[in-house]
Design a protein that fits this description.
Structural class: mainly beta
Strand content: 35-45%
Number of strands: 45
Oligomer: single chain
CATH architecture of one domain: 3 Solenoid
CATH superfamily of one domain: Single-stranded right-handed beta-helix, Pectin lyase-like
CATH topology of one domain: Pectate Lyase C-like
Shape: elongated
Distance between the termini: 104 Å
């Protein structure tokens, strides 16, 4: 039976499972779906559900008041399991402020699948700074609404506040295969591409989310003010997963915060070109694997909160192209501990690899067995020969990976010294000229190494260097040498062919055997 409006066809649907075939055309109406039906359009460019000039409000919709409590499509009913596909839901609202709530709102414990649909222009006319205008919303804690389902293979653009919102404990939604695009040039409102909040759980997978920026012409926006976010987890429920997405050009590409120690999985994503930070974590446990974070002032930012902040880099993560810090941590008085840990990741091409302004237990960065851009490891005061990304003090990085393929984790400062300045062997009882020239050949920071035997030179040796040579194997046997002075030298004495680092000394004296002098 042919019907003039979609609403009339919905009213005539005889039973659950009916499919309503909607022909190409523009249908100016509000819809309520409270049956388990399929609303099938002729294509997202052909079948259009247009917001009418007057939108009726619905007290179940939240947040806001007046025109903000509206939706073009309202899905409700605990027995409802409906699908809408291959059409378009289009705004805008009828006025310049607070005139439209959502394109689609799902509540009343309904289940709803949105597939291959475009949701567009869900905003005031023109786009305003009011906190309304969301493309698709499931659930609302303010009115006790819960909604679940799927948003699949759809395009969501030209919205005012959020592209997709999943909110309230009990709401559970899969958001997969969508293209969600914010407004450019940046508007004066802090938009979000996807928001999971207030205990809701979601799988956000294989989406492209981009262009979520808040104009700094609004004094409420900026580095120390409001941000637009690609994917926002605001006290989302445990088990929320962010997998295999491409999230770019937002003020913050992923922003995950909470106050109950919630745990989230973030894997196989590409986060790029954020205005401020690619990934932010605070007050939650974030498990990250196989992500690429590139091209932002800060790659990963872990901040102290009222509950502990734990970021586990479980391997395969790459942080590169950060103009400030690859990993940055901060805390404040009264905040719970911050921990960032993990191995078999890569940090290179950043201005600073990792920065820790505080010491444990306030902040702990435990990052062994990672690649820092060079086999010599990160630049650090304790690793003067490091050529990789720098790390600040208070960061565990030893046994770094000397390659980024097999992750052979044997890197340490002594190995660098030995590779950079290999030993210069001199046999015992060699002519004095050979003995002296070997020290000269070793050079600044070099190594003098003598094989076993008895050295018979009765000479005083003097060697000055900013770091000094490393004297190795000299005094393992009785020697006849008056005095050897290595100013600021690191002296390595070998006993039973096992090296033991004895530290930095000013004078090394020997009579029959070796002993150290502190003078």
């Amino acid at each position: 039976m042919a019907c003039q409006t979609i609403g009339y066809a919905l009213a005539q649907a005889a039973s659950s499972g009916d499919t309503l075939q909607v022909a190409a055309g523009t249908y100016t109406e509000q819809l309520t779906i409270n049956k388990s039906v399929v609303v099938q359009g002729a294509g997202s460019a052909s079948t259009i559900i247009q917001a009418p000039a007057v939108l009726a409000s619905n007290p179940a919709i939240s947040p806001g008041s007046g025109g903000q409590l509206t939706a073009i499509v309202f899905v409700t009913g605990v027995a409802t399991n409906a699908t809408m596909k291959d059409l378009q839901v289009r705004g805008p609202g009828p006025s310049s402020s607070g005139s439209i709530g959502c394109g689609v709102f799902v509540g009343g414990n309904a289940k709803f699948t949105l597939d291959s649909t475009r949701i567009t222009a869900i905003r005031d006319q023109p786009l305003a700074n009011s906190q309304n205008g969301g493309g698709v919303r499931f659930g609302a804690p303010g009115t006790g609404q819960v909604g679940s389902g799927q948003v699949l293979n759809s395009v969501i653009d030209d919205f005012q506040k959020n592209g997709v919102t999943v909110s309230n404990t009990g709401s559970n939604v899969t958001v997969r295969g969508n293209t969600i695009t914010g407004t450019m040039p940046p508007p004066t409102i802090a938009q979000n591409g996807v928001q999971i909040s207030s205990g809701a759980v979601a799988l956000v997978e294989d989406n492209t989310v981009s262009n979520l920026q808040c104009s700094t012409s609004n004094p409420a926006c900026g580095l120390d003010a409001a941000w637009s976010i690609g994917v926002l987890l605001s006290s989302a429920g445990n088990g929320t997963q962010i997998i295999n997405n491409r999230i770019s050009r937002a003020d913050g590409n992923l922003y995950a915060v909470g106050s109950g120690g919630q745990s989230y999985l973030v894997s196989d994503n590409q986060f790029s070109d954020a205005v401020y930070v690619n990934v932010t974590a605070g007050g939650i446990a974030l498990n990250m694997a196989n992500n690429r974070l590139s091209g932002a002032p800060v790659g990963l930012f872990a901040a102290g909160s009222s509950t502990p902040t734990t970021v586990t880099l479980s391997g395969g993560n790459l942080i590169t192209g950060a103009s400030k810090q690859g990993i940055r941590t901060v805390t404040s008085n009264g905040a719970q501990p911050v921990s960032v840990s993990g191995s078999r990741n890569q940090f290179y091409g950043n201005e600073t690899g990792a920065d820790n302004p505080a010491q444990a237990p306030a902040i702990t960065l435990d990052l062994p067995c990672n690649w820092w851009g060079s086999y010599t490891g990160p630049i650090n005061s304790d690793n003067p020969l490091g050529l990789g990304n720098s790390v600040s003090s208070g960061i565990t990085y030893l046994n770094w990976a000397i390659d980024n393929t097999s992750f052979n984790c044997i890197g340490n400062p002594l190995r660098n010294e030995q590779l950079t300045h290999p030993p210069v062997p001199v046999p015992f009882n060699a002519p004095w000229a050979l003995f002296g020239s070997a020290l000269a050949l070793a050079g600044i920071g070099g190594v003098y190494c003598a094989a076993g035997g008895t050295e018979t030179h009765a000479k005083n040796l003097f060697k000055r260097a900013p770091r000094g040579p490393l004297a190795q194997d000299i005094f393992d046997s009785p020697v006849q040498m008056t005095l050897i002075r290595f100013f600021g030298a690191n002296v390595l004495r070998v006993a039973s062919a096992v090296g033991v680092l004895l530290g930095t000394v000013g004078i090394f004296k020997s009579h029959q055997g070796a002993r150290l002098s502190s003078s």
